[in-house]
Amino acid sequence: MLNENPIGRRRFLLGASALAATATLLPFLPASAQEGLTPEQVLNDPDMPFVGAKNADITIAEFMDYNCPYCRKSHPELKKLLKSDRRVRVVYKDWPVFGPVSEYAARMALAAKWQGKYEAAHDALMSSPKRFQQNKEVTAVLTRAGIDMARLNKDAAAHKADIDKLLARNALQADTIGLQGTPSWLVQSFIVFGGLSHAQLQEAVAEARRRQKAPSSK
After folding, report:
1. Which listed site, 52, 123, 135, 204, has its alpha carbon 20 to 30 Å from 62?
2. pLDDT one-digit tens code per residue, 143-191
3. What are phi and psi of 49, to 5 degrees?
4. Which residues pair with 26 in a beta bridge?
């Protein structure tokens, strides 16, 4: 069985249909006057790059950090899932919680989307065999991955405000949901914590599809 943590009244109600039927929203913890947060907002952020199927029936949002060892262990397993299941889409939610170098890595990866290479940057950083201790180590990995570093630095500076907002939004979503660390996964309508194997990811997707077919289940 999956190590699933049910989400109570301060978090998402399980089941997208239950959420829609009751209009249950997740209030932002830092500012209760703001509108509530729904799974849809987390899963379909138009500013966040995604990989996998464009017309997916299941979307997974992974809150991750490039210096998280369990994120790196899960990465090849997630790639296997995307290869074996063509109806899945993954949204990477850059959430740098391991310090300044993690934040630098996240910023550089996000900046790579303006040259169409976010996925390449993400794969390269996640495939690193060890933790990044210095920014130059991040730069070296991205350079080897074929990222145009001159353009990357220019885009990182030109789009700093956009990257700031996206990272802040990811962090706020994580805080609002009540996530405790990386990796954390929102699979359509429920949360799973910790590193996952290919089989566990397949199980999570199967459970999400089961819930879609059984709208009254909770």
Report:
1. 135
2. 999 999 999 999 999 999 999 999 999 999 998 888 889 999 999 888 8
3. -60, 155
4. 37
Residue 47 tokens read as 């500013």
Match 């966040």 to its residue by tokens.
48
Instruction: Measure the CA–CA gap between 63 and 94, rounded to whole angstroms.
Output: 6
**Token pair listed for 148:** 């145009």
For the chain, strand residue ranges (E) read 50-52, 58-64, 88-94, 184-187, 190-193
From 27, 48, 8, select the one nearest 176 (Cα to Cα): 27
Question: Structure pTM?
Answer: 0.82
**Interior/surface letters 40-55, b for 16+ CB within 10 angstroms, e for the rest:** eebbebeebbbbbbee
Spatial neighbors of 153 by CB under 8 A, at least 6 apart, are: 111
Strands 190-193, 88-94: pairing kind? unpaired
Q: How many CB atoms lie within 10 A of CB 157?
A: 10
Number of H helices, E strands in the chain: 9, 5
Angle at 191 between CA 188 and CA 192, to 5 degrees: 120
The CA distance from 86 to 53, in Å, is 6
Residue pLDDT, tens place only, 84-130: 999 999 999 999 999 999 999 999 999 999 999 999 999 999 999 99
Q: Which two tokens stand for residue 149?
A: 């570093």
